[in-house]
Amino acid sequence: MCQKNIFIDLIKEKFEKEKYEELSSVECYMKQYRVSEEEAYDELNKRVFDSWKEINEDYFLKPTYVASPILDRALNLSRFMDLVFKNGDGFTKVGKGTKETVHALLIDPIL
Fold it and tell me: What region holds the Terpene synthase metal-binding domain (predicted)?
């Protein structure tokens, strides 16, 4: 299961459950492993953390023949998904925090 889908499902489950008819990662995990919602959240958040650890190890510690600009784009997409979905659905419900962060990253970056 990819990191992006877990982020999105965690947010949809928490804040917009009534709008979506498909099963989320949280619901699937709860049913498959017969665990509580809290246990499912804990495990899925652990998987997100482990995914970041793996991404960082692969990106920074392992030599590769893939061009750096390609790897940079993949890493930046993961960073963007983390930024947008970490504290809620910042994509469909853009709040002040998301706007300020995007402004800081794109308009006033620290170089």
Answer: 9-54
Instruction: Select from 95, 55, 47 the least CA-distant residue to 75.
Output: 55
The token pair that represents 59 in the structure block: 């990106």
Q: What is the pLDDT of residue 42?
A: 95
Q: Locate the domains of the chain by residue range.
A: 21-62, 66-110
Q: pLDDT tens digit string along 45-76?
A: 999 899 989 988 888 888 888 888 888 888 88
Angle between helix 37-61 and 25-33 (nearest 10):
110
Q: What is the pTM of this model?
A: 0.62
What's the chain's Rg over C-alpha atoms?
16
